Amino acid sequence: MAPSKKSCVWKSYDKIEGASNSAKCKLCQKSIKSCGNTTNLIGHIKNVHKAAFRELNNESSKNSNIDSNTINKNTQSVTTVADVQPSTSSADVMKLTEEADADKISDSFKDEGNVPVPPVPKRQKSIIALIYMICKDNQPFTIVENEGFRNLIKVIAPHYKLPSKTTLTRWVDDKYAALSTVFKEKLSNIENLTLTIDMWSETMSMRSFLGITAHFGVGNELLSITLGVYQSNERHTSEYIAEMLLKTCTEWAIDRDKISSVATDNAANMVKAIDLAFGKKHFPCFAHTLNLVAQNSMQQCTELRSLITKVKDIVTWFKQSNIASNELRKATQKETKLIEEVPTRWNSTYHVIERFSELRTIVNDIIIRYKNAPPMLTASELSILSSVLQVLRPIEAATKEVLADKYYTSSKVIPLIHCLLLKIKPLKLEESLAKELQSVILKEIDKRMGVIERVTSLAIATILDPRFKKMHFTDPIACSSAVAKVKELMKATIQNEVVESDSSDHSDKPEDNFSLWDDHHKLVHKSWKTAKSDDAISDELSIYLRSPVGRLNENPLEIWNDLKIQLPKLHTIAYKYLTMVGTSVPSKRLFSKAAQIFLEHPLTHKRADNDSAVVGVIGNQKLWFVWSVRSSIQLRDAMFKKVLDFEKTSMFLTDASENIDA
């Protein structure tokens, strides 16, 4: 009797010492009970590691002599046996089981007519399409249990069996695990990262969350990821926030030395947390500072606050009166409506005043017909509001500029402040209230941004941006200090290269005869290299500063890519500073999206029980980036569970399906 052949499934398992009936999966390190056969081992590979299951099938098919007619004849019976009976010859059972599953999927897409049966890969495409729909449309996993959705699938594919919520969750978990592993490997090759951090409180469930995003350059692009959104169960102390930051860096294998800056708001606990975790790398969010300038300026003008209150009262009255709202809607051609103020966003106040000024004639005609309506503004008050809009317009444009950019780099901060001042200072205003506001705004800008040019990182980033260079510096001392700092950085880079070359030269050379003048020759060589490096630094920096500036709409990373050969030392430093983000807006956008999901999906009594994550794909064969959302928000049946945000679905389907299944 020939010896029994060992199943090829054991290539994916290691036997556990001391446990004869268990084996450890090499792919996920999970312990599986074998019970003297390989049925459970095959089932785990088939259900969890589909790519490995196909590889085993291919390998078994090479050594299998089973007749194809016999396979087709016994497919159903073998499938049943594989599910309920033990098997010691698993390779052939795996082959037959896969074909049986493929037949079921193919049958499910049959129509009443003569529609060709889709091939086996249709199953994988349907899985990916289902996950994509859930993630893209922010749908809960329980959609597969909804009666309407099940009826739709029954009409489209009568024989297709929808997966359960548990199965769907497992599919997404597998994809997330694979993508996060790939991303961690790619993230380890990034030299410089900028973090943005923000805290958000969800008012409906009274929970607070800490969001952390990372930004870095890859080639000519600036990419962004969300490392995590963590529910904060403790006080928001600087020590607790610093601990969460370090924990996140450890989780994603990020070296703290690679973090060039951290952008947050101006809260004291945030500033101290950054100092505790990374040292002096904190950068105040420019968008938050602009918001403070505008809000504080308007708060200091008492008469202006009274005028804005009168406008807000009129807006509120229109919102509460259906008759007045209908009349306003009919009187405007595009159904333009009045805008309500959002307390946390100063520019919403600007838009309230602007829209009210546009509709003042129509609003006045409606208000005078109702006794209970609030009093309309006088002509002089409307004139004051018009002048106030002139003063606030540059700040609103700056805010819009910051929020419009997907990634607002730190190199644009100093130029934008300079342009802001050039717009506000020359204004000739007649209204005394507008003049007061103008004066207060200039004082606030000087108070909060007066020494912005002396912030070394911002000054270097501005100088090394080919679109700006030294044009927007008003402090010549700050400008010259930044240029000197750039020279120091270039010199340090060259010295590191010299040390490395010297050490390599010394290690390559065999030991010669003793010479008393060896050290003298080394000093001469070092002096020559130092003089040469100083000349190279002066030449590169002079060539760059004398060259014409780039156009405003150009990508500075693309410009530096063209200058890389001519200015190699300067290129390395420029790339580091030009990929630094100047605001914490990306982390704020994360919470804006979260709030939108809350509005779209009402709270239920079901609670999210797992970590959440959003995984996206950037381009073909480019970096995978992971948006991890860890929360236990009571969203509609765990909305913030692991989901995939397929930014470019077609590329994902064609190029990444095998990687995801691995």
From TrEMBL:
Pfam families: Dimer_Tnp_hAT, zf-BED. It comes from the Eukaryota. It comes from Ignelater luminosus. GO terms for molecular function: DNA binding; protein dimerization activity; zinc ion binding. Gene3D superfamilies: Zinc finger, BED domain-containing. This is BED-type domain-containing protein. One of its GO terms (cellular component) is nucleus. It is found in: Nucleus. InterPro entries: HATC_C_dom, RNaseH-like_sf, Znf_BED, ZnF_BED_domain_contain, Znf_C2H2_sf.
